[in-house]
Write a structure and sequence with these properties.
The chain is globular, with a radius of gyration of 23 Å. Helix content is 32%, strand content 26%. It has 542 residues and is α/β, with parallel strands linked by helices. The structure holds alpha-D-glucose-1-phosphate-6-vanadate and cobalt (II) ion.
């Protein structure tokens, strides 16, 4: 029943920051998914008879892709594929289940926070047995294979029912449909103080969780409303839709504006939170108090010992390079090491496996810990609830207290989207060519202290990853970082990260963009963004 199908390679099936991401019509081309999935399996060894975990964020094309993966996995010799009911499995839950079942690996079908629907984005990512995104040697091998593939093998069989719990046979392989929420919810109970949070809600604490019509809906309904007693209606947009109701499932101040406005209004609940398409990102907003993701990482780290899973303290804190230095200050105070990695969760895996870091995070609304090997949106929300329950203070009080203790890192990211790719490359290359001449120059009233192109030396396996973003440091401790996105599907996205540290509590009340005004102006003139890209201002400010 195994059919061998001749195929020809496609151009550019290169996994980016977080797997292969393209427009849906690209994935719909004949053999496109088949080529990539076969290339994944061709790059792996030793999975015969083993288990693969499979699921996605429910976006358009999820179901079609699942059937293809099942049939190719069966032909490749996997013993079992465990698929989330309805094809639903959040990214952190996939990581959780891979680890819990000691599976060989997993495939996640998602384009995360990108638009869905027939003309939206789709994505395929392979995760290893440790539960995290495949490291670079594997993604490099997959990419190489996509360039030489000549055939794929697929089981000829009718589509498998993925909506009924239980087991069915597909060729020699077992397909097991399981509850996508149960294992994850159980893990959360081990880490976070559910009793304390139940008491918090019972005492009248109010919250809105916006699942953005994406994958976290079922998880949030079950955990927040079901297990923790949050009032019915706490979770909004809680049913996953293939097109996310036409919205970007991206929990930031642009796409979760309604939530932000509610939290700034007189009708604000105590806490507002949201997650993205695949459930790995989080947004935290207190009544009248937005928490930047970089600050949230620092505050979770500083208070983690209040949660049962972390009461022994943290081994270390890791952040991606563009993430603000707020977490470093917490690490310093705790007397533990901090690590700075390239953008993308795959770089945290080694640090977590080696127990060098316990908590990690990125400025792009990703926070997580050693409980899984992905960032985890709902976990971050539960950690905040745990902290609020134990401390009995508001989000605003905790944020202001944190700044008073550690100082405030004013921070913003400016994105220039769908920029001409050649212009974006030209801009980055021109910056790189100036790295040696910049130190000592006075620009916009600020003196450049040093400039470099970030390279990461992995302390565990010794690998070196270069060209991870141009950093310009100023003598007053401010910093501007430039890098190109690795997750976009149209043109290039230039990300500019701007940061200034302010130790003085009397100066912690400025609006972020105003506080960073001179640096923002400089961030545009330094590489002549307008001259090179035609863009006078960014498309998205977070
Ligand atoms: C972006 C973020 C990065 C994150 C990645 C995947 O990558 O900047 O921090 O890890 O998305 O997140 P890039 O290369 O576009 O800057 V997700 O929620 O898509 O899995
Ligand atoms: Co995501």
């Amino acid at each position: 029943m195994i059919r061998v199908v001749a195929t020809t390679p496609y151009e550019g099936q290169k996994p980016g920051t977080s797997g292969l991401r393209k427009k849906v019509p690209v994935f719909e081309q004949p053999n496109y998914v088949e080529n990539f999935v076969q290339s994944i399996f061709d790059s792996l060894e030793g999975f015969a008879g083993k288990t693969l975990i499979l699921g996605g964020d429910g976006r358009f094309y999820n179901r079609e892709a699942i059937q293809k993966v099942l049939k190719i996995a069966a032909a490749a010799g996997f013993g079992r594929v465990a698929v989330g009911k309805g094809g639903i499995l959040s990214t952190p839950a996939t990581s959780c289940v891979i680890r819990k079942r000691k599976a060989f690996g997993g495939i996640i079908l998602s384009a995360s926070h990108n638009l869905g629907g027939p003309n939206g984005d789709f994505g395929i990512k392979y995760n290893i047995g440790a539960g995290g995104p495949a490291p670079e040697p594997i993604t490099d091998a997959i990419f190489a294979r996509t360039k030489t593939i000549t055939e794929y093998r697929i089981v000829d069989a009718p589509d498998v029912d993925i909506d009924t719990l239980g087991e069915t046979a597909l060729g020699d392989m077992v397909v097991e449909v399981f509850d996508p929420v149960a294992d994850y919810a159980e893990l959360m109970q081990q880490l976070v103080d559910f009793e304390a949070i139940r008491a918090l809600f019972a005492g009248g604490f109010t919250m809105r969780f916006d699942a953005m019509h994406a994958v976290t809906g079922p998880y949030a309904h079950a955990i927040l409303e079901g297990m923790l007693g949050a009032a019915p209606g706490t979770v909004v947009n809680g049913t996953p839709l293939p097109d996310f109701a036409g919205h970007h499932p991206d929990p930031n101040l642009v796409y979760a504006r309604d939530l932000y406005d509610l939290l700034m209004s007189d009708a604000a609940p105590d806490l507002g939170a949201a997650s993205d398409g695949d459930g790995d990102r989080n947004l935290i907003i207190g009544r009248g108090q937005f928490v930047t993701p970089s600050d949230s990482l620092a505050m979770i780290a500083a208070n983690a010992h209040l949660a049962p899973g972390y009461k022994a303290g943290l081994k270390g804190i890791a952040r991606s390079m563009p993430t603000s230095g707020a977490a470093d200050r917490v690490a310093e105070k705790l007397g533990i090491k901090s690590y700075e990695t390239p953008t993308g969760w795959k770089f945290f895996g080694n640090l977590l496996d080696a127990d060098l870091a316990t908590v990690c995070g990125e400025e792009s609304a990703g926070t997580g810990s050693n409980h899984v090997r992905e960032k985890d949106g709902l976990w971050a929300v539960l950690m905040w609830l745990n902290i609020l329950a134990v401390r009995g203070e508001s989000v605003a009080d905790i944020v202001r207290g944190h700044w008073a203790t550690y100082g405030r890192n004013y921070y913003t990211r400016h994105d220039y989207e769908e920029v001409d790719a050649a212009a974006a490359d030209g801009l980055m290359n021109a910056l790189r060519a100036r790295l040696d001449e910049l130190p000592g120059q006075v620009l916009g009233g600020l003196t450049v202290e040093k400039a470099d192109d970030f390279a990461y030396h992995d302390p565990v396996d010794g690998s070196v990853t270069t060209k991870q973003g141009v950093r310009v440091f100023f003598t007053d401790g401010s910093r501007i970082v430039y890098r190109l996105s690795g997750t976009g599907t149209a043109g290039a996205t230039l990300r500019v990260y701007i940061e200034r540290f302010e130790p003085d509590p009397a100066k912690h009340d400025f609006e972020t963009q105003a506080a960073l005004g001179d640096l923002i102006t400089l961030s545009r003139s330094l590489p002549d963004i307008e001259g090179r890209t035609g863009r006078g201002a960014p498309d998205v400010i977070t």
